[in-house]
Amino acid sequence: MGGRRLLRRGAAVSDPVVAARGVTLTRGDRAVLDGLSFEVPADARLLVRGESGAGKSSLFEVLGLLATPDGGRVEVHGEDAARLPERERAALRRDHFGFVFQDFRLIDDLSAYENARVPQEHAGETDEAWLDTLFERLGIEPLADRRPPTLSGGERQRVAIARALANRPSVILADEPTGQLDPSTTDDVLATLASVHEEFTRALVVVSHDPRIAGRFDDVHVLSDGRIRPE
Ligand SMILES: Nc1ncnc2c1ncn2[C@@H]1O[C@H](COP(=O)(O)OP(=O)(O)OP(=O)(O)O)[C@@H](O)[C@H]1O
Prior knowledge:
Helices cover 31% and strands 27% of the residues. The chain has helices spanning 56-63, 86-96, 112-123, 128-137, 153-165, 183-200, and strands spanning 16-27, 30-41, 45-49, 71-76, 79-80, 97-100, 171-175, 203-208, 219-224, 227-230. The strands form two sheets. Strands 6-7-8-3-9-10 form a six-stranded mixed β-sheet, sandwiched between helices. The radius of gyration is 17 Å and the shape is globular. It starts with 15 loop residues before the first strand and ends with a strand. The chain binds adenosine-5'-triphosphate. The site of adenosine-5'-triphosphate has 13 residues, from strand 2 and helix 1. Keywords: ATP-binding, Nucleotide-binding, Transport. One of its GO terms (cellular component) is plasma membrane.
């Protein structure tokens, strides 16, 4: 196969895992995304930066099939998923995306380990060996039985990263993953995301306005006026 591992008939590793093509999204009376096109290569490790209000969260939601654009295509492994029924979008989200949110979105009543296991339960496929590996690599094994309210911000974000990887997604999408963290914890979490990217070879897309993190990415894109351009 000449190094081109088939993902589905006609698709290969070198194809984008996610692509937006001519996407428009209006919020209120504003075209937040305005004919935006953007490809996420399978080995991407990239940052999309933009001013507050530029539409970063909107882009995150559209790329992650959490919001439906008004126009254009959002392709997952080459298939247009933008306007599929919600059930099918949910299945694609579960199987192909890992989400890391600024506010962690962990369930307070579950332990760290149970939180990280949630995506596997949704998929009906438990793989505790993989979860154990993630907890070990992320340095949160000793926290497995603790509940989120007893964890620091950086610890919670690591649990959220473990959850994002639980189903071995093709792409990790992170929306302001360091927004609630102090500078040294920000460094830790960015280093963790970078090593996760290297070790588990998933595409990593971070959207952020945090100027502290721009220097951590070689591949930086700017979102402004509803479009994306390389920096
Ligand atoms: N539900 C909504 N109704 C109306 N306008 C909205 C809604 N959600 C977002 N917007 C507007 O869309 C624009 C883009 O918002 P978005 O949250 O995507 O930007 P952002 O770049 O993530 O901003 P920030 O960095 O401040 O979080 C903003 O002008 C915002 O006010």
